[in-house]
């Protein structure tokens, strides 16, 4: 027997207060979203302040004049000076979100060899069972639309959900996971994925990722303008731009990772809410983790040889990096989009 094999006999299983966990994670998510919106608008105001801080020459008095930075900011906040850059950034964000909305489903399946489950013609009993499991959970979760179901032809065990709304929702599962989990464990993984749909996690994470990228692009362009631009600027705004250029990349990454981990824990909690049982999800996590470690070399090649795998990595049910697949991105737990296995089990009320 492999040294990696684990089961619940090695753990103490207790009930978890999933209602309190849902409330706590929802509050944490709101705080992160509000903070991202504030940062995004703040970058817009910094750009506006930069363009309004140009020193100009008064020909009558033969002196260079400069409006104080504090006055510029007050004028922008009170709209005495219209914040054109901030408005442009908001329009760009809205257009980018619309484009992402229409093309996201195609993006997340890029590079994979998959089939779509057709309820009118099941190819085998496994497909029928998968469809029935998701249909049961869809009813239990109170969803109005049946998500599209895809099976990825891969031996490793994983799954993910996508879609900006219930109507556009989709669930993808690897054939390895479908074949190696029992019905209860499969139900638990699918309950986790449908919880992502219920909680609008895909919409939230994509919105935040988009805002983060736009923030970094805007501040980087502004920083380059400071370095290579002509004309004199107020030293105060220059200092703000330089600090923002080096602080914002770190801050946005940490906030995105925190949001992703929070939503993963929330989806785990949503699974317990739907199933009223924490053990099936714990068994599935342990089985998937053991399977990845037992087949690390084979699975690492499979993940690495699949194009655009980095697009799906943050959405997966199980983060392959925890099995030592460093080539997929994270170099350690600090930069993982998922909580550790032990942290997820602990949140489910299962401890060693």
Please explain how this structure is put together.
36% of the residues are buried. This protein has one domain (8-351). A hairpin with a 7-residue loop joins strand 6 (159-162) and strand 7. The protein is an alpha+beta fold. The protein has helices at residues 18-51, 69-77, 84-108, 125-141, 175-180, 183-198, 201-228, 235-275, 279-294, 296-304, 309-313, 341-347; strands spanning 12-13, 56-58, 63-65, 114-116, 148-152, 159-162, 170-174, 350-351. Strands 4-5-7-6 form a four-stranded mixed beta sheet, sandwiched between helices. A two-stranded antiparallel sheet has the order 1-8. 61% of the residues lie in helices and 8% in strands. The protein contains twelve helices and eight strands. Mean pLDDT is 84; it is low at 56-64. The longest helix has 41 residues, at 235-275.
- Count structural domains: 1
Strand content: 5-15%
Please identify the structural class as seen in this structure: alpha+beta
State the major sheet: 4 strands, mixed
| Spatial gap, N to C terminus | 21 Å
Number of helices: 12
Mean pLDDT: 84
**Rg over C-alpha atoms, rounded to the nearest angstrom:** 24 Å
The spatial strand order of the largest sheet comes to 4-5-7-6
């Amino acid at each position: 027997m492999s040294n990696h094999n684990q089961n619940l006999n090695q753990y103490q299983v207790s009930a978890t207060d999933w209602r309190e966990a849902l409330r706590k994670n929802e509050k944490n998510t709101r705080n992160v979203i509000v903070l991202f919106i504030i940062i995004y608008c703040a970058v817009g105001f910094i750009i506006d302040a930069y363009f309004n801080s140009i020193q100009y020459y008064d020909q009558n008095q033969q002196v260079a004049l400069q409006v104080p930075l504090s006055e510029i900011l007050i004028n922008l906040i009170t709209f005495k000076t219209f914040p054109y850059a901030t408005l442009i950034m908001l329009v760009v964000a809205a257009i980018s979100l619309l484009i992402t909305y229409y093309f996201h489903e195609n993006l997340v399946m890029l590079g994979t060899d998959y089939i779509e489950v057709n309820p009118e013609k099941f190819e085998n009993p496994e497909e029928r069972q998968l469809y029935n499991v998701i249909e049961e959970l869809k009813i239990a979760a109170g969803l109005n639309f049946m998500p599209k179901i895809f099976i990825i032809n891969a031996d490793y065990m994983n799954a993910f959900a996508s879609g900006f709304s219930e109507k556009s929702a989709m669930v993808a599962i690897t054939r390895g996971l479908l074949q190696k989990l029992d019905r209860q464990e499969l139900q638990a993984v699918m309950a986790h994925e449908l919880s992502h749909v219920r909680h609008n996690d895909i919409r939230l994470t994509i919105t935040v990722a988009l805002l983060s990228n736009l923030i970094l692009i805007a501040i980087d362009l502004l920083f380059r303008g400071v370095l290579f631009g002509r004309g004199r600027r107020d030293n105060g705004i220059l200092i703000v731009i330089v600090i923002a250029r080096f602080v914002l990349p770190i801050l946005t990454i940490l906030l995105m990772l925190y949001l992703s981990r929070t939503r993963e824990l929330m989806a785990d909690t949503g699974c317990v809410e739907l199933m009223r049982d924490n053990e099936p999800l714990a068994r599935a996590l342990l089985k998937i983790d053991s399977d990845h470690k037992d087949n690390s070399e084979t699975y690492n090649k499979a993940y690495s040889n699949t194009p655009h795998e980095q697009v799906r990595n943050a959405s997966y049910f199980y983060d392959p990096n925890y099995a030592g697949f460093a080539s997929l991105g994270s170099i350690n737990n600090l930069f993982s989009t998922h909580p550790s296995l032990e942290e997820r089990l602990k949140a489910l009320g299962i401890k060693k």
